[in-house]
Every structure is written in C-alpha cells, then in structure tokens.
C-alpha cells in the first residue's frame, strides 16, 4: 500500500514540465537560502576597511625640564593611523568629525583633546591626571558597526599606550648612554683620581682612630681581668659557704630523722617481737590440743590446724612493719655526712638486722605451710599426723629462736650504733655552724665591692667598643666606595690608574658595568619597543575553522533544511483523496459509498490503514527533503568551499536533519492542518533564537538556556561542527543519536495520537473553508 501511494505520487510529480520545475524549485530554494547567507557572511570582519571613522587631533604637545624633548602624542597617533588599514580613517577637524557622526557620514569619531600629551606626562608629577580620548559613536546606523568601531578605538588606545611607554623608555636609554659616555671622558677621569685620593686619606684616618680606641679598651680590659679574678675567688668562697650551710642543715635534719627513726624502730621491735613470741607459745599449745583430738574428732582437729595456719600467715605483716621501719631508719642514716665511720657501721648493722628478720619471716611461712598440710593429713593417716606434730613443734621452737636472735642483735649492734652516730653528728653541727656563718658574711661584703668595680669597667669598655665599631664601619664604607669608583673607571677605559684598588675590583661589579655598557650601546629603538610591549599573544586554535563563513555554515545549512520542510508542506498536499485511495486499492475512480465521509482512515476496511496513508504520502516528502539536504551540503562544500574535514559525516548530518525536520513538519501538518504549519513556523523562530548557532547559549536569556536541550537545531549544528573541524570522543555520534530521537515523539503523534483528533481537525478545516477567506 505504501509503495503504491508513493508510485502514484511520483507519477503525478513528473507528469508535466510545470510539475518537474516546481519539484526542482522545492529542492533548490532551501539551498539558495543557505548559500546566500553563508556567502554574505563569509568574511565580514575582513572588509571593515570600508567603515569610515573620523579622527581629529587638537593636541598641543608637551615639553618639560625632566624630558628635554617635545612630546606630542596626538601627532604620533595620526602617523600610526595613516599606516593602519583596519578602518577607513578620515582625518578632519573636530567640528566636522562630530557633525559627520550625527549625520551618518561617519560611523564613529575620535577626538584628541588639547591637553592630551600634558595629561599623560603628569605621570612624573604628584598630581596625576588620567588622559582621555573623546569617542563619538552613531549606534543607530547598524547593530554590528559599533562593535567593529569599538575594536578600532581599542586599537588606538593600545597604540597610545605602547607609544608612550616606548617614548619614555627611549629617553631613559638615551640618558643612560650619555652618562656612560661622559664617565669615559678625560675630565671625568681626573675628577675620579682626586676623589679617590681624598677618600683614601679619610679612610686611613678613621682606621687609625679606631685602633687607638681599641688599644685603650684593651688596657682597661687587663685591669678588669684582675677585678674579675678577685670577684670569682670571692664568689667561690661565698658559694662554698652556702654549700656548707646547706650540708649542715641536711646533716642536722638527718640527725633528727635518725633519732626519730631509732625511737620508732625500738618501739616497733619491742612490740612486734613480744607479739610474735607470745603468738608462738599460743600456737604450740593449740597444736598439741589439735593433735590430741585426732582419732576422736579428726575433722575438728583439721579445722583447728587450718585456723592456726591462717593466723600464722596473718602475723607475717608484723615482720613487714619492722622491715619497713628499718628501711626508713636506713634512709635517715644515708643523709648523714659520709666522713663519719660510724655511719657505715650502722648501715651494715641495719642490713644484717633486715636479713635476720627475713629469715624469721621465712620460718613463719614454712610453719604456716606445715600447719596447712597437717590439716589435710589428720583425717587420712594417724601415724603421719604424729610425725607432723613433732615437725611443727620443732618449727615453732626454731621460729621463736629466730625472733630471739633478731631481738638480741638489735639490742647489741643496732641500738648502740644509732645513739653513738646521732650524738657525733649533733656535736659536729654545733661546732661548725658558727664558723660558716661568719665566712658567708665576709664573702658577701667583699663580693659587693668587686661587683661595683667590675660593672664600671665593663660599661666603659662597652662604650669604647661601640665607638671603635662605628669608626671601622665608616672606614669600610669609604673603602668600598673607593673600590666601586675604581671599578667604574676600569670598566670605562680598561686602564684606570687612579687609586690603589683598581686591580681589586670584584668580578660581579665588572659584570654589572659590562651589562650597563652593553645596554647603553644597544639599539635604543629596539629596546624601547620591547619595553613598551614585553608580552606577545600566541594564538593556538583548537579545532580550527577556516573562516567566518565556514563557522556560520552549520547554522544557515540546518536553518535552510527546516525552511525546506515547511516549503514542502506548503506546496504539497499531505492528505490523500478518496479517488487516489480507490486507485491504490484497485477499486476504480471512487470508493464504494459504504466507506462513509472522505478523510483519513476511511478506506481501512479494504486494507488501506491510517499508517499506510501516513507513510505512503510521507515517502515523497522524505525523498524531496533528502534531495534538499544533499544539494545544500554538496553546495556548501564544493561550491562555496566551506571547510569539511569529514565530508561523508557532513553529508550524513544533512540527510538525518532532512528526515527528522521533514517528518516533524509533515506530522504537524497532517495532524493539525494549517495550524500545524503555523506551529512549524513558531518552532523555526524559537530555534533561530535559542539554538546557539550565532551567539553562545550561555549569553542568551535563562528561558532559552532551559529550552536549548529540547530543540533539534542545537544537536544538528553541533554534529555538523564536529564533522567540519573534528570530534572530541563520541561527540559526533551522540549528537546524531540525540537528533534521531526527535523522530520518536513525531511518529507517536502521527501514528497514535493523531487518531483522536482527526474528527476535530476535519471540523476545524470545514469551518475555515466556510469563511471563504481561510
């Protein structure tokens, strides 16, 4: 069915010459539209030399004592613009320039005021003024011309800035060159020799004065050394006295601690030993009682023995208390002076006492363990229990003997030595304390006297040292000046004989002089040009476009394809008559009356469905649209010479755009009739403004930025740009896919959503026809 409709449409379109001419016109007109626009915008910024811009110079110039050269920046500007062909510069009077802008004779005018150069030279005065050009612009003549002339005015301002910087740099370099040449003259050499002689005498005088001051300071220093030695000796005596006093205080404290510790230990010994000895007697009695109960009540005996074991274990803390007291006493003894032999004897006695206590503590621990073991044996073996009784009683006797040994040793060895040592220390402290006090007072008095003398001498030497340093610094400064002057003379003539330091000039100073000479003898014009514009812009094009026409080609090409789709729907019928349907179905010239009223879908009972009608009539639209896209793209590349690095991709964009655009416009028209054509025109206008083809989308209002992704133009233009200059990654393929996706809503409208509005559309068409105007 689709093929049948397409064949009959092709026959009708080629039936006569007029039909062929119209068909060819439908293909050619969109291409002409694109080519004229692309050719017209091929290189607009290369033809700006025809734009007339007036220039009027009223500058009076400027001359000052600082720069003895008359400066007239206005004349320099006029000279520069005579060689500039970016615009059609018209050099006229200021009145004519302003009047010409008003009348439209000139697009713009630049007027240089009278005090322009004087204002620029205020850079070297405290009262700086900003030099200003007067720029007159007629903005109603053309919307683009003001931007072009603005660029020309900017060029003038940049030229002024560079010229001013170049002039100042050239004057400075000329001045430096003059000074260097004067420094190489014989007169300057004589001045330098006299100056060197005077400076050398001054430096020697300053050095001699510095040496005299230093000698006097050294003489005072010798006297000060004697005073310092005396002061140090007295300070040592004072320090020794203070240390002795501290030692005596520590000895006194140690003796007091020793006496206190001895009393505490004696009390602890008597209390502890009495408690332990009495406890052992009670334990022996309880042990016999417990073992006597064996056989009668073994469990009771075992319980009593276990209880005795715990009591013996708890009594071990008495040993620890005694040992702790002895350790405290030992610490007190160690604080006493080391010279006393009684101290070491007492320390040895205390250590022996601690050893005996630890042995006694060990006997108690063993006794507690035997009692604990016996408590478990009495219920098992009577004979073994009897042996344990004997061992326990023997262990009790041994423990009591250990206690007696501790008591006897303490009374015999430790206590007498404690009393003797404490008495000896107290006597020594009493004898030496008064002597040390007298020595400290005498040393303090002598220290005050030597301190005053040393302070006065040090202050005088400090003042003399500062004077000597200043004299040496002044002499060094003068000598450094002599060296630099001699270096400058040698750099000037290479053989200076003034002064004695000419051969000692440093290599760095010589290098600086050579650089200054090279700078002054270089081409001043070249250097001043470099200073006025030290930075140059190196433009690197990424995905370069040959010219402005090629850059605008995608926009105008895509626009012309949409226009071509609208023209097709305006010139060709989108609906199929009943007569054509009958011929396609082979039913003659008319459909049977049972078909009902004419309109889309009325022949579906004979097999010609609504989708057959849609695609059958669209086929000729698609063919003509493809021819339009092919012609405009081939003409862009081979007639106008538009840049296309990938010609086949460029053609593919044109073909896809032709299919998508023609389908959208065809669907709108077939669904809504003339209203659909109006919608297609509205979409055209929206896409011209919001596609980003002329201005970047970021510069457009927010509404167009939001609408941008939902329009087909931007994707088609981006794909064509990628085909022309190169694609970044999958950029080209993605844009082609996005463009093809617009077929989905278009086909959905034409094949599905169209059905409910057919009757409404027919009703609207009948009412429009009834007006006899629409």
Itemize the secondary structure elements and their pairings.
Blueprint: H1 2-13, H2 17-40, E1 52-57, H3 73-82, E2 88-91, H4 94-103, E3 108-112, H5 116-121, E4 134-137, H6 145-183, H7 186-292, H8 298-314, H9 316-334, H10 341-377, H11 382-493, H12 507-521, H13 524-532, H14 548-571, H15 578-585, H16 610-639, H17 647-672, H18 674-690, H19 702-707, H20 712-725, H21 731-740, H22 743-753, H23 758-770
Parallel strand pairs: 1-2, 1-3
Antiparallel strand pairs: 3-4
Helix pairs in contact: 1-16, 2-14, 2-16, 3-6, 6-12, 6-13, 7-8, 7-9, 7-11, 8-10, 9-10, 10-11, 11-12, 14-16, 14-17, 14-18, 14-20, 16-17, 17-18, 17-20, 17-22, 20-21
Main beta sheet strand tally, sense and closure: 4 strands, mixed
Radius of gyration: 61 Å
The N- and C-terminal alpha carbons lie at a distance of: 33 Å
Number of helices: 23
Spatial strand order of the main sheet: 2-1-3-4
Transmembrane segments: 17-36, 553-572, 618-641, 647-666, 678-697, 736-753
Organism: Bifidobacterium adolescentis (strain ATCC 15703 / DSM 20083 / NCTC 11814 / E194a)
Membrane topology: Multi-pass membrane protein
Main location: membrane
Can you offer a commentary on this structure?
β1, α3 and β2 form a beta-alpha-beta unit. This protein has helices at residues 2-13, 17-40, 73-82, 94-103, 116-121, 145-183, 186-292, 298-314, 316-334, 341-377, 382-493, 507-521, 524-532, 548-571, 578-585, 610-639, 647-672, 674-690, 702-707, 712-725, 731-740, 743-753, 758-770, and strands at 52-57, 88-91, 108-112, 134-137. The chain has a 4-stranded mixed sheet with strand order 2-1-3-4, sandwiched between helices. The chain has 3 domains: 2-41 and 552-770, no CATH class; 51-183 and 523-532, 3-Layer(aba) Sandwich (abc type-2 transporter like fold), CATH 3.40.1710; 221-457, Four Helix Bundle (Hemerythrin (Met), subunit A) (Up-down Bundle). The radius of gyration is 61 Å and the shape is flat. The protein is mainly alpha-helical. α2 packs across α16 (610-639) and α17 (647-672) runs parallel beside α22. The model is unreliable at 494-506 (pLDDT under 50).
